[in-house]
Amino acid sequence: MLKLRAYAKINLGLRIVRKRGDGYHDIETFFHRVLPFDEVTLEPADAIVMHTSNPALPIDSRNLCIRAAQLISDEHARGRGARITLGKNIPIGAGLGGGSSDAAATVLGLNRLWELNLPTERLHELALRLGSDVPYFLRGGSAYATGRGEQLGYAPLDLPYWVVLVYPNIHIATAWAFQNTSVALTQPAASLKDVVLSGVANPELLCRSLTNDFEPLVFHTHPAIAQLKERLEALGADLALLSGSGSSVFGLFSDEGDAGNAARILEQDFSVYVTPPNFNTGGSDIPV
Ligand code: C5P
User: Fold this and answer.
1) Which of 69, 135, 173, 243 measures 20 to 30 Å from 217, CA to CA?
2) What is the mean pLDDT of the chain?
3) Which atom of ligand 1 is nearest to the CA of 178?
4) In this predicted model, what pLDDT tens digit does every residue of 178-202 receive, in sequence order?
5) Would you say 26 and 18 are in contact if contact means Cβ atoms under 8 Å apart?
6) How far is CA 89 from its chain centroid?
């Protein structure tokens, strides 16, 4: 039996660079690992079956864990089976990559459970067939991402902030958000990679420079999410920003007391997750 943690992510900035011919968009973002995490347990079985703690989740081929297992079983394991148990903590439709993280954990776990020894590049290819941000979750740490989100440069990002992440009980589908957001006409001078990596030493610059191109659409459609961002700022966040295509908003707090206070207040209405500073250390292939 194998037990894996599948962490959530936030996006430290997100730019939609261009619409591509294949129906996807090129983006620029910085993925950053945060709490909470799901738990994916894998056991040998005759067929691919799944159980989950969240009754709202489908446990058939609409579920990315099942799709991941089916793909690896068909292409590399001659139809072997596995029992997948998913302890679900990451909210759904929240811009936190929960389904993608679960899928990546399933890919990594089955590579071990079935003793396939698939190389990293092959795991990356399989992951990308499951979703644009599944490859990021194959490794820990933070990563600067371009292309569909699959061209990754990992960096050890010791973010000197408490992250207060708030899920406003609203579900947003990523495909809808991409379809309804127009590509920015002008591109900013500085690359998001430089903004984030230099911003760790210069928090004021970081907070001034981080934006998310989905905010206008999402805030217009769901004014409650715009209000949540304002509340986080009023409660002392140095920066509050939408994660991915929403619906979650996170606040970066330099003061522990302010972060705890904001979490206590917002918990009365929403699901809140607090990640301590320097939580996320990982490998690097970006020279910093
Ligand atoms: O790759 P994934 O299945 O997560 O994407 C869901 C949908 O979001 C895609 O079908 C596409 O419409 C949109 N998308 C996009 N550009 C990206 C990622 C996703 O247009 N980089």
Assistant:
1) 135
2) 93
3) 20
4) 999 988 767 777 889 988 988 777 7
5) yes
6) 13
